[in-house]
Design brief:
613 residues; Neuraminidase; five-stranded antiparallel sheet; alpha+beta; 10 helices; eight-stranded mixed sheet; 38 strands
């Protein structure tokens, strides 16, 4: 008994020491926040919730494309030709901004719609979203993180939300027994369950990575921590995960984690292993299996090199499409030199086999006709007669055939062998030896034609809708500068001819301020911008006089039009001018202040024009 009590007392002593250390750390953090004039992060979230309660109705309005951001989600609408974007974050070099914007992109019309719905989730990034057909369409969101502007404070969520798409109405799900708060996890739908694996929690002083598995039943609204046998993947976040379409199996690949070597020294690890999560027992009639097993699997084909920030989306036929990523040459958390990728990969989920996807390039119409006739001539007289058919019928038949093909190159096939897999959805032709996934994804055939591809990046969002791959944004680094992208592309997976540019990459959208820049200066700039489009004429600042910038190409004013009305009508032009000046003159104006700056230069031009008349 004495030994037992001694052990219990020792355990309590450790607990008290940990609590004392935590209290000291909290005091230290509060002191740092007070010096910076920053409010406690939980108060910031509470203020948002209070402000959100003032919203009483759903507001839908057409808008410009979203501002640059990363770590958001973009999900295909289950029933409409739409994509749904939620949340995300944007870092300016000295400030972090986190969003809870909800956007709908209409694919056919190429239009963006911003939806403001009361009672929604607070701002977050690195969350997960899954769309389901049931009940008129639902968008489920779990977890994520929120950061203060200074990044001295992080808050991780463990809340579950559902957006009822028909009414655009948010509902918070209050169900006990769910995962702990986290971000960087992954979530997929399997039958009537949402399966969540991995993620991490970071409170600046300490961090933890997870490898637990939870399931949420979307019919009974209940959480279950799954009983999983076998050797599990090591704890990680930022991995990719995909559910197979014809069987309740889940693939997990890669990811990132850190381990503490010394008190102030961490070492990062990029994972390259792959696991399959499979249910045990009879699952045919069980929509919500609770017993599962981990299976480590051997990968074949053109396996990608080690990288994190790799993005994945599922395509028909138990295939996944992946893009980008980054590999850090030196992972000591001090001086990281990253190599960014823009290779496009295909993974056969049921075979765990990798392929490189090559974009063929769009051929001229005359070349297509020649190639078609050549193929038909080789098939004999019966096919030769079809060449003489009406051109419209020939084109229609060939287009239908092209829509069934998805051609990829693989590295480990013999040079002289072509292998074809045809499952009725995709006809996958594995051709002669191509390049490895470490390369730029170009085959030798591509060298003759300059084929556009999105630039290298990590953490882009990928989504497939009706056989078309959509790629939006991401980020990369230029020295110490982190560039957040807002470009947008599509690729027909059935033709693989060329990337369609929906929104061009525009580096001028990026606002970057060195971390040692004075925050007071930025605030001063913001104060100068107040009331820029007011009724009284504003005097130009010294910096504007030095610039000597003219706006000869500005949209013309109309008679009896106020400055405010003129700015609203020509907002896109003046916002672009503000971005250009900010970039060229290295003003360091934040995204929040950019519109005010646009109003200021608009007012200056407006008043100057009025004074000359």
């Amino acid at each position: 008994m004495g030994k037992k009590n001694k052990k219990e007392n020792k355990g309590k002593g450790k607990e008290k020491t940990a609590q004392k250390t935590e209290r000291k750390a909290q005091k230290r953090t509060k002191k740092e926040l007070a010096e910076k004039g920053e409010e406690d992060i939980e108060n910031l979230i509470a203020e948002f919730k209070k402000k959100d309660k003032q919203q009483t109705e759903v507001v839908e309005e057409k808008c410009e494309p979203p501002s640059p951001r990363c770590s958001m989600t973009m999900t295909a609408h289950p029933d409409k030709e739409e994509l749904i974007m939620f949340g995300g974050e944007y870092f300016t070099g000295n400030s972090m901004f986190v969003y809870n914007d909800l956007f709908f992109y209409n694919i056919r019309k190429n239009e963006w719609m911003k939806v403001t719905s009361p009672g929604g989730p607070p701002p977050r990034s690195a969350h997960q979203a899954v769309a389901l057909h049931q009940c008129g369409g639902q968008l489920w969101i779990f977890g994520g993180e929120f950061s203060s502007h200074s990044q001295l404070q992080f808050y991780h969520y463990k809340d579950l939300w559902v957006l009822h798409l028909k009414e655009k109405r948010w509902e918070k799900i209050n169900a006990p027994g769910g995962p702990t708060s986290r971000s960087g996890h992954r979530m997929v739908a399997v039958k009537k369950q949402l399966i969540i694996f991995g993620g991490f929690h970071d409170n600046i002083r300490d961090y933890k990575y997870y490898n637990d598995v939870y399931a949420f039943n979307v019919e009974s609204y209940t959480w279950t921590k799954l009983d999983v046998s076998g050797t599990p993947p090591l704890p990680r976040s930022g991995h990719v995960m995909a559910a197979m379409q014809d069987q309740p199996r889940v693939m997990v690949y890669g990811g990132y984690s850190k381990e503490r070597l010394k008190k102030e020294t961490d070492k990062g690890k990029t994972h390259t292993d792959m696991f399959i999560l499979v249910p045990e027992g009879r699952t045919k009639d069980d929509p919500s299996p609770t017993k599962w097993r981990w299976q480590a699997v051997k990968q074949t084909g053109s396996c990608p090199s080690a990288r994190c920030g790799l993005s994945l989306t599922v395509a028909p036929g138990n295939r996944a499409i992946l893009f980008g990523g980054v590999h850090d040459e030196n992972e000591n958390e001090e001086e990281l030199e990253g190599t960014f990728f823009n290779s496009l990969l295909l993974l056969e989920l049921d075979k765990c086999r990798w392929h490189n996807i090559s974009i063929r390039g769009k051929k001229e119409e005359s070349e297509r006709k020649k190639r078609r006739r050549k193929v038909k001539d080789e098939d004999g007289e019966a096919m030769a007669e079809s060449v003489e058919c009406d051109d419209e019928h020939v084109h229609s038949a060939e287009d239908n055939l092209q829509q069934l093909s998805l051609e990829v190159d693989t590295q480990d096939e013999p040079d002289s062998v072509d292998t074809t897999y045809d499952d009725g959805i995709f006809k996958v032709t594995v051709g002669p030896q191509g390049v490895s996934a470490d390369g730029d994804g170009m085959s030798e055939l591509d060298m003759d034609v300059e084929i556009f591809r999105p630039s290298p990046r990590m953490n882009t969002v990928l989504v497939v809708k009706n056989g078309v791959l959509f790629l939006y944004g991401g980020l990369y680094e230029e020295g110490d500068k982190q560039v957040t992208l807002a470009d947008f592309y599509s690729l027909d997976l059935q033709k693989l001819e060329e990337w369609n540019v929906i929104i061009h990459e525009d580096k001028k959208l990026q606002v970057w301020v060195d971390s040692d820049s004075s925050g007071d200066d930025e605030e001063g700039e913001g104060e100068e911008m107040e009331g820029a489009c007011g009724g009284e004429e504003e005097s130009s600042s010294d910096s504007e006089e030095d610039m000597e910038i003219t706006f000869d190409d500005a949209p013309p004013f109309t008679e009896n039009e106020s400055c405010a009305d003129y700015f609203d009508r020509c907002k896109d032009y003046w916002t672009q001018q503000a971005r250009t000046i900010n970039e060229d003159e290295h003003l360091g104006i934040s995204m929040e202040k950019l519109e005010k700056f646009a109003k200021e230069i608009c007012a200056s031009a407006f008043n100057s024009e009025k004074s000359t008349k």
